[in-house]
Amino acid sequence: MSPDQYTSVEQLVLDESFQAWILEEDAIAREFWEEWLIQYPEKQHLLKEAKGLLLSLQVVKKEQLSDEEIDSAVQTIQSVAFRKGPGTVPVYPIHRKANRIHWLSVAASIALLFIVTFLVYRKYKNDQAFSEGTSPVTMIEKYNPRGRKATFILYDGTKVKLNGDSRLWFPNKFSPEERVVKLQGEAFFQVAKDSQRPFRILTGDVVTTVVGTSFNINAYEEEEEIQVAVLEGSVLVNSRGNQRDSVLLKPHEIANYNKVQAEITKHTGFDYESVFSWKDDVMYFKEASLSDIKDQLERWYGIEVEIQGKDDFTALYTGKFSNERLEIVMQAIAEVTHLHYKIQNEKVIIY
């Protein structure tokens, strides 16, 4: 299950990355969970409870429970469970003279039992992973609908900004040999350096391989080309069907893969704003056709754009907008192109 689907304290407590942040003060894990909290502020109470539980666990760990003590606790817990029967809860008689200390000790015992149970579970999971040689790998899908962008950090420290109408698939943990993800749509990557494990992005018939760098990939399914542009570092781009058809990109170089011709072309120099402005929350048009304007408005605002009776419209539009409302953008486009428009709920009609 992906962390963005967590709905309980238990799920957070049992997440290895969450444990690494709280118990081991891991910097990469801390950055990941701080971003997670920004994206899901409504789950702050879950995070606080889980953090408190793990810190309590850390106190218990200082008591240096041995494996024999944990195994003994397991047997005790199991024997109590089977003796009481499933679903039963012990009932304590209420005595008027029972003092506060007695009830505090009972509460402390219950808390300690829960924490020891957690230790037992973790020991069992670690033993199971060791005996099997590896723990199962599951694929996580991150989807941004039109009108939404999101920034998140993968478990290796790689930072990804995913554009609207885009999907990214990645494993809950990478293999020792390589780091592989799959992209449909557009994303900007800042790949964490790891010389022993190259980072590969699969986009249709194109494979992009890096070690540590910053670059943008545009790979929307409906478009004729896949585009890879490098900001920092170097990137190897090749066709999955033809490993020999590959190009090495350095900063300020761009590769375009034609899906019909199955060919990769390389160019030096490109307009920064045309490629990277979206990640800076700037919508940029450069000599855009009416069709280009339609596609970008739909992805940016999550709306439907309908063009009526403008088959012969050939004018091109250039402009940029930083976090502007849809109405402001449409007014500016209409003023320059002499087009007319109307906004009806989640739909824009251009005529």
UniProtKB/TrEMBL annotation:
<feature type="domain" description="Protein FecR C-terminal">
    <location>
        <begin position="283"/>
        <end position="350"/>
    </location>
</feature>
<dbReference type="InterPro" id="IPR006860">
    <property type="entry name" value="FecR"/>
</dbReference>
<feature type="transmembrane region" description="Helical">
    <location>
        <begin position="101"/>
        <end position="121"/>
    </location>
</feature>
<keyword id="KW-1133">Transmembrane helix</keyword>
<dbReference type="GO" id="GO:0016989">
    <property type="term" value="F:sigma factor antagonist activity"/>
</dbReference>
<keyword id="KW-0472">Membrane</keyword>
<dbReference type="InterPro" id="IPR012373">
    <property type="entry name" value="Ferrdict_sens_TM"/>
</dbReference>
<protein>
    <submittedName>
        <fullName>FecR domain-containing protein</fullName>
    </submittedName>
</protein>
<dbReference type="Pfam" id="PF16344">
    <property type="entry name" value="FecR_C"/>
</dbReference>
<feature type="domain" description="FecR protein">
    <location>
        <begin position="147"/>
        <end position="235"/>
    </location>
</feature>
<dbReference type="InterPro" id="IPR032508">
    <property type="entry name" value="FecR_C"/>
</dbReference>
<keyword id="KW-0812">Transmembrane</keyword>
<dbReference type="Pfam" id="PF04773">
    <property type="entry name" value="FecR"/>
</dbReference>
